[in-house]
Design a protein that fits this description.
Keywords: Membrane, Transmembrane, Transmembrane helix. The protein is α+β, with helices and mostly antiparallel strands and 184 residues long. The protein is 36% helix and 26% strand.
Length: 184
């Protein structure tokens, strides 16, 4: 008889004196991690070769084109490094107290934080969109660095967290938040 292991989830929910702290590690996409690691080796080679070419006195190549290409190549490499670090070690941290909801995106080398006035946070809900190879992805969702299964309204804007969470885990998190903060 086949047995399917019970899902344990990725998130960790801690009750604190001031509220809740929810930590959600990034969902590992091992194909993307390997692809980006190999791609970045080629990227580094291209970066070094163009830099050497730019500062070589014997180079007759059009310098303006090389500078423009180098700028685009560097931006592409920075994005790939960010995506690689997010997929390896990224974390979403949501701290909710009686007065604010704080959302932190943490990487090994830096973090970004947004604070929301809890009295303006409304309509906390689960919104899992069906994904397919040719689905209507927006932004950086295919790279695993944006989007989210847990959604809330803040004034006239909508915010998401819980990137690539399974629906059951997202429902558990929303239920836990609502038990502690009835207004949400």
């Amino acid at each position: 008889m086949a047995r399917v292991e019970v899902g344990k989830g990725r998130s960790q929910i801690d009750n604190t004196v001031s509220g809740l702290s929810i930590t959600i590690p990034s969902k590992k996409n091992y194909f993307l991690i390997l692809f980006l690691a190999f791609w970045l080796m080629g990227w580094a080679f291209g970066e070094v070769m163009v830099l050497m070419s730019l500062f070589s006195p014997e180079n007759n190549a059009p310098r303006l084109f090389l500078f423009a290409w180098l700028g685009g190549w560097t931006v592409g490499g920075a994005f790939a490094i960010y995506a690689l670090l997010w997929n390896i070690k990224g974390q979403e941290i949501i701290n909710i107290s009686g007065i604010e909801l704080q959302y932190i995106r943490r990487l090994p080398i830096f973090q970004r934080s947004k604070e929301f006035d809890l009295s303006s946070v409304t309509n906390l809900r689960v919104k899992v969109e069906e994904s397919s190879m040719f689905g209507n992805y927006r932004g950086m969702e295919p790279w695993g660095i944006s989007g989210g299964s847990i959604v809330f309204d803040y004034g006239y804007s909508t915010h998401k967290f819980g990137i690539k969470l399974d629906e059951a885990e997202a429902k558990h998190i929303v239920s836990t938040i609502r038990q502690r903060f009835k207004s949400l």
